[in-house]
Amino acid sequence: MSKVVFLLVPKLHLLDLAGAAQVFSTAENVLTEAGGPSAYRLRYVAEAPEVLTAQGLPVRAETAWPELGAADLVMVPGWRSPGTAGGPRLSASQPRHLFEHHRGGGTVASVCSGAFALGQAGLLDGRRCTTHHDLQEELARRFPDAAVVRDVLFTEDDRVVTSAGIASGIDLALHLVAVRHGPAVAGRVAREMVVFARRNGDEPQASAMLRYRSHLSDAVHRVQDRIDARFAEPLRLPDLAAESGVSQRTLTRRFAEATGMSPLRYQSVLRLERAEHLIGQGATVDAAARAVGFADARMLRRLRAGAGK
């Protein structure tokens, strides 16, 4: 049985903690219900017996570290942004615990700003790592010997595993379960948790559905809602214009002003992104093309070639 030890710091984000903890807890249930031995025991350690989260909910923790072996995992959830003010600093002993666990053959992981704790422990030097997209430049500035990878969900380098913001901790934890128990078990855990899809670490932190939403046009948002929900279906510009309440010409102009592209180009971007996910999960190009609504794979191949895939 492996221990999964969460190091808790003041103002930690609940989802950073709960998302990953739920994965390992669900994995334990899946494995034991299948007749296997107990796989995980979750522990929580902190400097004080009670830690206040960023969301105002206090959580309880042990103040003494358990004995750890090479099969155990230590994970640091993120806290309300370290930013330039520095955020919570670890106690003198906490970086040592992280460093010594890794030196003993164990795995150390972080979610979001938890990467800064790994940096304080000297575990990022010379290694690939990532964090939330808003914090990547700060992480690179504070730890110049770290190889900060931008716009990925998680990285793994010599038993140092780092993930991006908030919900990406679920992706990281599912990846670790897949490494230890196989993709079928990780897939079962994802289904139990009603997670839409287990994403690869190299996938971008922000999907196309989010990247083109930083505008104030209600008409364009309504059309994007329609395309987001039905991008695999044939969509006609007159129908989209009716959805927005403006003319086709006005919609095309406003959509371009808001997103930098036409509505149908936006639909193609969504199709390409979803197809790349399916291909990354093992689908053929032909199967991915059919799944996202292309009549054949030639258009998908042209789009992938244009994107350098």
UniProtKB/TrEMBL annotation:
Q: Which CDD domains match?
A: GATase1_AraC_1
Pfam families the record matches: DJ-1_PfpI (PF01965), HTH_18 (PF12833)
Record PROSITE patterns: HTH_ARAC_FAMILY_2 (PS01124)
Q: Name one GO molecular function term.
A: sequence-specific DNA binding
Which keywords accompany this UniProt record? Transcription, Transcription regulation
The HTH araC/xylS-type domain extends over: 221-309
Protein name from the UniProt record: DJ-1/PfpI family protein
